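Figure caption, in words: inputs first, then the predicted bound structure.
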Amino acid sequence: MYNSKIKGLGYFVPEHVVTNDELSKVMDTNDAWIQERTGIMERRHVSKGDGNTTTTMGVKAAKIAIERAGIDKDDIDFIVFATLSPDYYFPGPGVLVQRDLGIKTVGALDVRNQCSGFVYAISVADQYIKSGMYKNVLVIGSELHSHGLDMSTRGRGVSVIFGDGAGAAVLGREEDSTKGILSTHLHSEGQHAEELSLIAPGMGKRWVTDIIADNDPNDESYYPYMNGQFVFKNAVVRFSEVIMEGLAANGLQPSDIDMLIPHQANLRISQFIQKKFGLSDDQVYNNIMKYGNTTAASIPIALTEAWEQGKIKSGELVVLAAFGSGFTWGSVIIRW
Ligand code: UT7
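Bound structure (oxa(dethia)-CoA present):
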């Protein structure tokens, strides 16, 4: 019936900048290692008293996206919120956004797909709009990592990488079937679930009463774990596959891509994909240098920045792609 299109974009990052040198004061790391292995120069962390949570950052990004979409908050028919760092264990942040934005009692869905969260969330929103069920869907990706990282040397392989922030998009109807979101492709491979994971406080670990009784700050399962090299190797393969899958489904080639917005996992991964698809520096948008990896927020922040900088124009082919914990991965092909 309809295609969906991105009508408005917004992002928010906390003011507090944390440089690599600052991290080297609390753990055994250094600016050269972090830049060489990841491309990251600095990231944002929320600070005490700034009021930033996963939800409030998402709300700030959403307000900008709604305004730019030229709609009223009461025109939103559905909310999809992607995060791995919700304010509460339950309920998820979707309903908190409904409350904080003062939107009428529309449905609110929480997506738990980590780095692929925004791509999964866009896919869900796209289906609702295509089916005609909803007209405007608010999609948010937001993360507050800094409260949950092991900031000792033990956690350095993970903690230097992740940053806080949020991005949002309003999806609406596109009457022209050759424009808007042309396709989404999603995948998972749970066989590798534990290779990038945070095991506690999952109910599968042990009885809750035991967790409360011996809540041990030295218990590593309360911190994210990543088998970095294994994740890296899988990421480069899956990114390439799922971008090709999306292009092929639309009869397109890598040379048709005008702008690729990869999930900001590691600058080396983005550069590998860029080379593989023969894209120029102008055709791949990276901002991991400034924000680190903001998981579900990374694509909407990068997409918003690219759009704000005039790097995405009407009629261009924009590709979003993500890979991460699950493993999950996916792509979105958009004719802007
Ligand atoms: O967003 C979801 C998807 N995520 C990804 O795709 C991330 C994929 N993986 C990566 O980006 C990289 O694997 C990392 C950036 C996480 C790690 O880079 P690496 O080149 O794979 O390094 P490594 O884990 O093999 O570690 C190399 C060395 C080790 O020391 P030894 O054993 O060689 O003595 C680590 O202990 O670097 C050490 N190391 C550090 N040194 C300084 C690990 N973290 C740090 C650190 N500072 N922060």
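Residues 29, 33-34, 37-38, 115, 156-157, 160, 228-229, 231-232, 235, 265-266, 269, 293, 323-324 surround oxa(dethia)-CoA (CB under 6 Å).
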